[in-house]
């Protein structure tokens, strides 16, 4: 006889019994077998129906994912056909281009200042063709370049490609003319047969050994520590002389032919500035970063 009681129907159990009912022992055993099978189906890792519930605490900004951000090696500086029409009514001269590049970095209001300082250094290194040094600075800043294109390119339809992202995911857009000279640059105007953009007098005097306190400022001793060997060199430098002059002095004193960048408190010194206008303090040690 088949038991058709409500309990058996709910459990999906058909039992042949000798009478009109099912014993309590049979029902208990059947229930236990049924529940055990259900638990096995839920907990068995090999079961195709068992799935772990997705975590609701995961974040797109976890440290693991930050380490996995897309990144490609930097490519060479792009070719720029024209001076930017939104900034230049006529083609720029080299001196105007230099002023516009300085203005670009000085007027950034979004992003982090230390990142923009790093972007400026990368721009200068790419301009000189030193991809290895540019990549070193970019990596040290914690930034990534998903496409390998440091400069942002604008395409038809307003789409952008390229650029650099910091570790917070913020995009830093650098126009192509900041890195590459536009091909339509015009020559500097001549004044009495002299190029108004010729080398500054203090650099010429420094090369000739001419020492004039009014021109080069107060003489100070500057100690620089070379990154490739850990030793120090000490040179004499005028506070009104540009950092580029100091770089040459350090190279000559250390006998280094490779490119050198001077840094103080983690910030690269801008070579066009006089030493006295930088953050360096007399008696402190500069870091001389040797590339190549």
From TrEMBL:
Residue ranges of domain Ubiquitin-like in the record: 222-291
User: Per the record, where are the segments of Basic and acidic residues compositional bias?
Assistant: 29-42
Name the InterPro entries on file. DC-UbP/UBTD2_N (IPR032752), DC-UbP/UBTD2_N_sf (IPR038169), Ubiquitin-like_dom (IPR000626), Ubiquitin-like_domsf (IPR029071), UBTD1/2 (IPR039869)
- One matching Pfam family, short form? UBD
For region Disordered, the annotated ranges are 29-94
Bias-annotated ranges (Low complexity):
45-64
The identity of this protein, by name, is Ubiquitin-like domain-containing protein
Q: Which organism is it from?
A: Aureobasidium vineae
């Amino acid at each position: 006889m088949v038991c058709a009681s409500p309990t058996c129907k709910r459990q999906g159990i058909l039992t042949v019994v000798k009478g009109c009912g099912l014993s309590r022992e049979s029902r208990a055993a059947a229930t236990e077998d049924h529940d055990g099978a259900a638990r096995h189906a839920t907990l068995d890792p090999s079961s195709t129906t068992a799935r772990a519930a997705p975590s609701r605490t995961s974040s797109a900004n976890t440290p693991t994912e930050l380490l996995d951000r897309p990144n490609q090696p930097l490519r060479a500086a792009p070719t720029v056909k024209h001076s930017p029409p939104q900034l230049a009514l006529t083609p720029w001269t080299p001196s105007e281009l230099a002023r516009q590049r300085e203005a670009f970095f000085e007027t950034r209001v979004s992003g982090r200042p230390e990142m923009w300082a790093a972007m400026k250094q990368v721009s200068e290194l790419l301009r000189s063709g030193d991809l290895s040094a540019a990549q070193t600075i970019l990596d040290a800043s914690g930034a990534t370049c998903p496409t390998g294109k440091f400069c942002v390119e604008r395409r038809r339809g307003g789409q952008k490609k390229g650029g650099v992202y910091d570790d917070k995911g913020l995009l830093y857009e650098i126009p192509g003319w900041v890195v590459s000279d536009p091909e339509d640059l015009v020559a500097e105007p001549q004044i009495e047969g002299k190029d108004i953009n010729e080398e500054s007098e203090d650099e010429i005097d420094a090369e000739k050994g001419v020492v004039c306190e009014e021109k080069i400022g107060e003489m100070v001793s500057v100690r620089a520590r070379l990154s490739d060997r850990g030793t120090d060199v000490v040179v004499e430098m005028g506070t009104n002389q540009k950092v580029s002059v100091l770089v040459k002095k350090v190279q000559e004193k250390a006998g280094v032919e490779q490119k050198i960048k001077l840094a103080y408190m983690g910030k690269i010194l801008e070579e066009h500035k006089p030493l006295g206008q930088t953050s360096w303090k007399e008696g402190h040690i500069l870091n001389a970063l040797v590339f190549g």
